[in-house]
């Protein structure tokens, strides 16, 4: 899976979870899009299940926008040696 | 089956008390992963006369409460899930399906599987079975607020 595919998949997961299709890459999930901590744990659970990764709570502060979330997921997947991950 | 935790032990673990206890015993536990609890439904419970007067159906909302209490027990009995002893548990999101009605005489087997825990939130999937048939399932998200 290349970066573009990963970004597209992540956009779908976020849009489905927060029930907002129209968001920009740099909008803040909490202050701009009204995402609450309950949605965040749901997003994290879906990402962990889809990509078989473990997202520790300490990563949350660097997942406040879509761009940041993509970078974090990519970083975790790369550190796991699963650059082409996903199923 | 001999319970892993008895009713009296469950009462000590849960923050709720009668008439809002919806777990009888804990049957099995894999700490940090899953728990199986049991509750017997009888015709003389407090909610039965009103739900409904002419046809008894155990309320679905109380099946959700059984699932939520199973999640609390899973959290409290799992050393890897760090739960503050003073925490209050607030159910904040539920996606549920009720498949079959529950009636007096049924024995609920409530299986709760851990999905994700943070310091102040948790997410679990739970399934309730009666005689090996699924009667309800749900995904629960809850927050844990420290009492100060």
From TrEMBL, chain A:
Q: Does the keyword Phosphoprotein apply?
A: yes
Swiss-Prot/TrEMBL keywords: Phosphopantetheine, Phosphoprotein
**UniProt key word Phosphoprotein:** yes
Annotated InterPro entries: ACP-like_sf (IPR036736), PP-bd_ACP (IPR009081), Ppantetheine_attach_site (IPR006162)
Q: Which Pfam families match?
A: PP-binding (PF00550)
Q: Residues in domain Carrier?
A: 1-77
Q: Return the SUPFAM superfamilies for the record.
A: ACP-like
What is the name of this protein? Answer: Acyl carrier protein
Organism from which the protein derives: Cohnella endophytica
TrEMBL record, chain B:
Question: Which residues lie in coiled coils?
Answer: none
Q: Which SUPFAM superfamilies match?
A: Thioesterase/thiol ester dehydrase-isomerase
Q: Does the keyword Secreted apply?
A: no
Q: Name one GO molecular function term.
A: lyase activity
Q: By its UniProt entry, which NCBIfam families does this protein fall under?
A: PRK00006.1 (NF000582)
Q: What family does this belong to?
A: Belongs to the thioester dehydratase family. FabZ subfamily.
Q: What is this protein called?
A: Beta-hydroxyacyl-ACP dehydratase
């Amino acid at each position: 899976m290349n970066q573009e595919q990963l970004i597209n998949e992540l956009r779908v997961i976020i849009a489905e979870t927060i029930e907002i299709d129209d968001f920009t890459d740099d909008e803040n999930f909490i202050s701009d899009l009204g995402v609450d901590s309950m949605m965040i744990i749901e997003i994290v659970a879906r990402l962990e299940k889809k990509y078989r990764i473990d997202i520790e709570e300490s990563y949350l502060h660097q997942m406040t926008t879509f761009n940041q979330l993509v970078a974090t997921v990519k970083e975790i997947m790369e550190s796991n040696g699963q650059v082409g991950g996903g199923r | 089956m001999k319970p892993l935790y008895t009713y009296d032990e469950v009462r000590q673990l849960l923050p709720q008390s009668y008439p809002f206890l919806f777990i009888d015993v804990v049957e099995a536990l894999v700490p940090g992963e899953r728990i199986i609890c049991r509750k017997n439904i009888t015709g003389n419970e407090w909610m039965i006369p009103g739900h409904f007067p002419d046809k008894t159906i155990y309320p679905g909302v109380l099946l959700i409460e059984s699932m939520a209490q199973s999640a609390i027990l899973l959290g409290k009995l799992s050393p890897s899930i760090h739960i503050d002893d003073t925490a209050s548990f607030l159910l904040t999101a539920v996606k549920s399906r009720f498949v079959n009605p529950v009636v007096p005489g049924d024995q609920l087997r409530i299986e709760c599987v851990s999905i994700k825990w943070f310091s102040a939130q948790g997410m679990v999937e739970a399934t309730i079975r009666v005689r090996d048939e699924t009667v309800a399932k749900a995904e629960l998200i809850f927050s844990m607020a420290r009492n100060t």
